[in-house]
Amino acid sequence: MAVSTDGWISLSAAGKLHGRTGLAARSCRQVKFCNGEMMGKKLKMTQLHQGMFSDRKKHVCMSLTTELAADTKLRDVEMGKTDPRTVVAVILGGGAGTRLFPLTKRRAKPAVPIGGSYRLIDVPMSNCINSGINKVYILTQFNSASLNRHLARAYAFGNGGFGDGYVEALAATQTPGEAGKRWFQGTADAVRQFHWLFEDQRSKEIEDVLILSGDHLYRMDYMDFVQDHRQSRADISISCLPMDDSRASDFGLMKIDNRGRVISFSEKPKGEDLRAMEVDTTVLGLSREEAEKKPYIASMGVYLFKKEKLLNLLRWRFPTANDFGSEIIPASSKEYFIKAYLFNDYWEDIGTIRSFFEANLALTAHPPRFSFYDAAKPMYTSRRNLPPSKIDNSKIVDSIISHGSFLNNCFIEHSVVGIRSRINSNVQLKDTVMLGADYYETDSEVASLYAEGRVPIGIGENTRIKYRKSFRIPRPISSFNQVLSLAFLISHGCSCYACYRDCIIDKNARIGKNVVISNSEKVYKRLIDLRKASISVLGLQLY
Fold first, then answer.
1. Cis omega (within 30 of 0) on the bond before 176?
2. Local structure of residue 328 (DSSP, 8 states)
3. Environment class of residue 367 by beta-carbon count within 10 Å: exposed (0-12), middle (13-18) or buried (19+)?
4. Which of 264, 291, 301, 487 is an S-S bond match for 523, by CB 3.0 to 4.6 Å?
5. Do 259 and 245 contact (CB within 8 A), yes or no?
6. Pairing state of beta strands 236-243 and 338-342?
7. Whole-Å CA distances, 129 to 133, 240, 286, 308, 325
8. Where residue 522 falls among pLDDT bands split at 50, 70, 90?
9. DSSP secondary structure letter of residue 324
10. Run of H or E including 537
11. What is the pLDDT of residue 226?
């Protein structure tokens, strides 16, 4: 008897270890176990009592470990299994994040909180860890302080717990020479400025470079992607998904042949160029009905390059190209073998306020299309050691309440409440994303703030926002006069309960007692149109 790494027990006359491959021609029995099911349980197999293994019993017990290592390696070779140690991941920190402003006012896009207690960077990082990829670079440039802090707290691999793995944040930096004085000019330029890392001693085993974005929400086994890439002998592989008309122009679109090879690529086409990218997506395995609804093949912004091909493209073939999606990929489609890899599962680009808002509230659905709760492939984040949330005399419906929060006599419906949130009495949250707080204020600090006429972090009692159409309040608003200058009516002394709808309440927001935020005069409508905002983003300090 022996146990393989994929959880199969194989019993044969020779007493050797086998996986699922090659078992059909052998006389053996299989037992499947998972999650420690094997531990402490007695296998009932009559062959053991018939003396079949009596002469080899000692050998089986004493040589299980050595046979496991040797036979697993042989099985991996037979199956063509890819070693994750030969893959390095590069996560792009993104640009200024203007479409996510004001959430990106003081933080990089990958550092934006999501799901109550996570950050966007946790998604690609967790996918890497669950895929066995433990060599990761994160390229940063804008507002990277909070992102660097989170990475240091959550993914400190330097303690040896992940073997030879590492997680390193690489900030845009200046180097000698005229070209070295520029910041990152795009995704390809960012990787090019650190291309030498792929040739140092630590990268001698690296065969493929995985390029990821830091602002997407999805769960993916990257090694399946790598396996397909190597089996097809592609130079470049692009993870893609079918897309409908409504959002197709927001993504890079491609045409493929019947082998999955990319023959044409267009970055965010509009009008006639968009129509020209329509394809029959039944080639991806979609039904005819699904193919009619989703006639485009969209890039997820997840690229896989052979290391040598990537270095050649960046340094010699396209030395001035700044972007993968709009320059290098389209120009390479006729010269290199670019393979499309179908990912027909939940994926969302958290690139706008609207998509951020909807993706958060979608987590409260029954069942949700995406969930952070997956024991087999968990999403990791910073260890905060917070206590459970304390909820007094409150009603919660279809919502997520993160740890360390205090809810008192309030009503929460279809909302996501972040860590360390304080929501006081007579407050109602509906269709709201509250990002929580970075720290607590003690009772004495809260009392001192009230004595000084200031506001503690959280939502004060008997406060409400009322409006018919949503609006965005730029952050921060730190005084009553500033609010008036923005043409919002704020009144005090109102005794009715709070009602927040279609809102994003930023971290560490301070909303006092008996406050009414209203836009009854609609004097702010023009700015709403210019910013194309349809929900509120509150980062307030209202007195």
1. no
2. I
3. exposed
4. 487
5. no
6. parallel
7. 6, 21, 30, 24, 26
8. low
9. I
10. strand 536-538
11. 96
CA 437 to chain centre: 21
Structure tokens at 164: 């030879």
Those residues whose C-beta lies under 8 Å from the C-beta of residue 371, and which sit 6 or more positions away, are 363
Nearest 5 degrees, angle CA 293-CA 297-CA 298?
110
Q: Which amino acid is at 226?
A: V
CA angle 415, 149, 381 (to 5 degrees): 45
pLDDT tens digits, 160-201: 555 678 888 888 776 666 666 677 777 888 888 888 888 888
Please, are residues 410 and 425 in contact by the beta-carbon 8 Å criterion?
Answer: yes
* Residue range 323-342, pLDDT digits in tens: 888 889 888 888 899 999 99
The whole-angstrom separation of Cα 112 and Cα 104 is: 7
34-79 per-position pLDDT tens digit: 433 333 333 333 343 444 444 443 333 333 334 444 444 444 444 4
Can you tell me which residue has the tokens 């990475």?
151
Element of type H or E holding 288: helix 288-293
Contact (Cβ atoms closer than 8 angstroms) between residue 115 and residue 357: no
Q: Is the pTM of this model over 0.85?
A: no
For residues 343 and 220, the answer to whether their CB atoms sit within 8 Å is yes
Determine phi and psi for 306, rounding to 5 degrees: -60, 135
| Closest listed residue to residue 123, CA positions, set 301, 403, 380 | 380
| Residue 149 or residue 157, greater confidence | 149
CB 274 within 8 A of CB 230: no
Give Cα 88 to chain centroid, integer Å.
17
Q: Which long-range contacts (CB under 8 A, 24 or more apart) does 96-102 make?
A: 96/142, 97/142, 97/143, 97/215, 99/351, 99/352, 99/353, 100/215, 100/350, 100/351, 100/352, 100/353, 100/356, 102/472, 102/474, 102/475, 102/506, 102/537, 102/539
Q: Mutual orientation of helices 222-231 and 122-131 as an angle, nearest 10°?
A: 60
pLDDT in tens, 7-39: 444 444 433 333 444 434 434 444 333 433 333
Reported as type and span, the H/E element at residue 61 is helix 57-62
Nearest CA to 225 among 93, 311, 128? 128
CA distances from 485 to 150, 489, 515, 538 (A): 36, 10, 17, 16
For 267-323, the pLDDT digits (tens) are 888 988 999 999 888 887 788 888 888 999 999 999 999 999 999 999 888 888 888
The tokens for 4 are 């393989």
Instruction: Assign 159 a pLDDT band (cuts: 50, 70, 90).
Output: low
CA-CA distance, 416 to 401, in Å (whole number)? 6
Helix (H, G, I), strand (E, B) or coil at 312: helix
Give dist(CA 408, CA 96) in Å, integer: 38
